[in-house]
User: Fold NmrA-like domain-containing protein from Lactuca saligna.
Amino acid sequence: MLPLLPFKKTNDIRHFINFSKKKKKTLEMSKSKILVVGGTGYVGKRIVKASLAQGHPTFVLMRREIGYEVEKLQKLLSFKKQGARLIEGSFSDHQSLVDAVKKVDVVICTMSGVQFRSHNILLQLKLVDAIKEAGNIKRFLPSEFGIDPSRMEHGLEYGKETFGDKMVVRKAIEDAKIPYTYISANCFGAYFVGNLSQPNTLFPPKDRVSIYGDGNCKAVFMDEDDVATYTIKTVDDPRTLNKTLYLRPNENILTHNDLVEKWEKLTNKTLQKVYISAEDFLASMKDLDHAYQAGFARIYQIFYDGCLMNFEIGEGGEEASDLYPEVRYTRMDEYLQRYL
Assistant:
């Protein structure tokens, strides 16, 4: 913060204002210009907010394909009001993507990759082609933000195409020698915390709760805004270049039992617990439609296989809270208080 000075003359005040403007411009010039693709989505809107909050010149791709989706238009206009710049482009117009990419230093893609919404992961290959042709991007963060796909080769067949598609995009990025950072953000709070990880609802159970297995498999739970904050921290950090950033802050590594216990403590109410064996859980998936099967597969992989915590972070990865201890991340008892 600049010091307050006892100005006595109008010229002194003008000089101070001009100095402040120049300093702000210098700070902006030292931070990478970021283009967010998919900025109106669930993760994207948070990435835009975090990018602006951390002082990056922030651009949002305004896709012509939004048609009459007025909510998306309103979000884009709200971004503009907050200081973001809108760039028109289309995945059906290669040159428009190239032109957009040339205006920035970093591209972050947050397009949906879940079956119950839209599954657009491979559309990023067009963005990879544009980045390759533009030749100016110093970092690309593709749409991942969940389970590390490189560790899911032996996952359930249900919904496995998501991981396969993400690996196709990774291969294209690395073959094109585009500098990258992959973000593994694990379990988003809105999908796994507020509902105590119960399927088919986003609200906490009132009387009984299903516990997966013995409930002692460790997982990682994150506030979505913290995911965005950590993501933006990486873009100018050489320590995350060509690596995977794992969001595994120590206090958010919890078992299913831990999560339920936090809710019971907050509500001063004990829930009836129904323990679901792996066999029964898998059997319950057989008659579901494809989108639900994919969702249930994630629950199985997290709470039965323990895919989020069954490995150590090696040379190709970094842990977010270790790199950025200044970030005061949200603990899950705090997150759960929103549902009281």
User: Anything to note?
Assistant: Residues 1-7, 19-28 have pLDDT under 50 and may be disordered. The radius of gyration is 22 Å.
